[in-house]
Amino acid sequence: MFAYIVRRMFQSVIVLLVVGLVAFSMFRFVGDPIDNMLGQERTQADIDRLRTELGLDQPFVVQYAKFLQGAVQGNFGVSYRQGRPVSTILIERAPATLELAFVSGFLAITLGIALGVFTAIRRQGIAANVIMTVSLIGVSLPTFLIGILLIYIFSVELDLLPSFGRGETVMIGSWSTGFLTASGLKALILPAITLGLYQMTLIMRLVRSEMLEVLRADYVRFARARGLSERVINFRHALKNTLVPVITITGLQLGSIIAFAIITETVFQWPGVGLLFINAIQFVDIPVMAAYLMLISVMFVTINLIVDLLYYAIDPRLRVDARAT
Amino acid sequence: MTDTMETTKSAPKSRLAKFWDSDFAWSFRHSPVAVIASLVVVVLVLAAIFAPLIAPYNPFDPATLNLMNGFTPPGTPNAFTQETFLLGTDDQGRDVFSTILYGLRISLFVGVSAVLLALIIGVILGLIAAYFGGWIETLIMRIADVQLTFPAILVAMLIFGIAKGITPPEYRDEMAIYVLIIAIALSDWVQFARVVRGAALVEKNKEYVQAARLIGRGSFPIMFRHILPNVLSPVLVIATISLALAIIAEATLSFLGVGAPPTQPSLGTLIRIGQGFLFSGEWWILFFPACTLLALALSVNLLGDWLRDALNPKLR
Lengths: 325, 316
Known about the structure:
Largest sheet of chain B: none
Oligomer: heterodimer
Helix content of chain B: over 70%
Structural class of chain A: mainly alpha
Distance between the termini of chain A: 11 Å
Structural class of chain B: mainly alpha
CATH class of the largest domain in chain A: Mainly Alpha
CATH topology of the largest domain in chain A: MetI-like fold
């Protein structure tokens, strides 16, 4: 167990170092930082001075080490476009994305599991079949089209919900939250549904297929023979045993939610980190791109690590296997 | 769709004939979903190929554009010029039907090329990993694992962003399509590599490979002439599903403004343009490109699902 954890953490660190190298190479080779920072009126002396100042005359390895050192301390340099430190911009934008991701993740997990169990138990029912068909369309619809569709229905036609922005936000310390105002909550609904829908259908289909498999298992038949109520069988015996793959997939999907937030944030002009990243790509704002890359990889690697360890903790069979080998 | 099928079917003739004699063809005829989906795909592909012949206007020729025609609703004559457009016009008076045909062309071109490129990279790396094993295998599969940690769309965005930074500003619009193809391909090769490696690992130990080795054939002929044809059917399934994903990925990137430029609009770019007119009531600028994209992605997806079931021996 301990050796396994150490090995996994070692792998994670290597992944992060590689991603760091990619991010650093972007700084170094994509566009000339000096070009970006000095205007047209520059002398060779200016260029040389800035080159020494930025440490660009030092060997590659030294520069990379310095970059990593800065990155660990949250220092990613200054945005080419906004002229402010990238870390400040990221901290400003993070609450919007995190709140959105949290709400959609919550929606996806609760609704996904509930609908999955429902469609598995009422396999032949009309409602279950309708849900399954709709979910198939939901999987094929690109995220941005779902967003546009929701905007069209709820903002253009019904004029119920706002189509862009976060509404009013309240500052709690340095965290701007939209949870406390009516307009903030209203603004959250459409983006959260857009972002969570795909994950929800995925979780739902997974829970359903796992449930169908488990419901055929001997111990469920035995539970039935013992005369246990359907509810106890479905939720205590069956659902519990479907949760291992569900937790893995859900954990991995948490990362996707952050990534797909880029699309949702663009559709709804949600002022989060994803929108910042898209704008950075459009304007080739390398420091912001590199910082986002590092940030998201730390998140992904951490999530993967946790999921792996959780997997291990939940399924006792894996522990036995690991000890045997 | 047909493009990928044609290329992956370039296996020896006898195999092709056997392929069609099998219950594969039978199951195709008896699946209404597959027949309808492939019909839709064929129609859309033909429309894309013959776009210059079908399209009533050339939306990229400024000479045929008349700003007076702007915002003409579908099927009704324009108030000033009395011209009628099947699916209406956009803000610059471009015929929506024509822009969709040309957009479809770019979407399909990018999608098919990206999948082909991903397939070539993935198949070669997968075969090499399986055949040689050792540190090469570890290296390739570790890279694949790391890349799989990140969603493909994010990888594609990043590659697009980096490539955009490298290309000089004056070429950015021209190169965008090709950068897009490379970005999507590089975000997608892992699937192919994993599947090919898995299948090739099994094939590698079979007698025919040993026999080929015994008569002294080199590693690369064995890999590509002997093993490759035997691992193609899962590759075909992955290619079809990847095509749907690639089309959606392209549309998503273009919609986000980090893909096909407005000078060469794909369906995603058209949707991006159309979104701006959603609130002012010109719904057709957005609606028709979105429907086309949906029909294309859905059909290819359904075809891929059917193909997976048809080729899976476990389900027969």
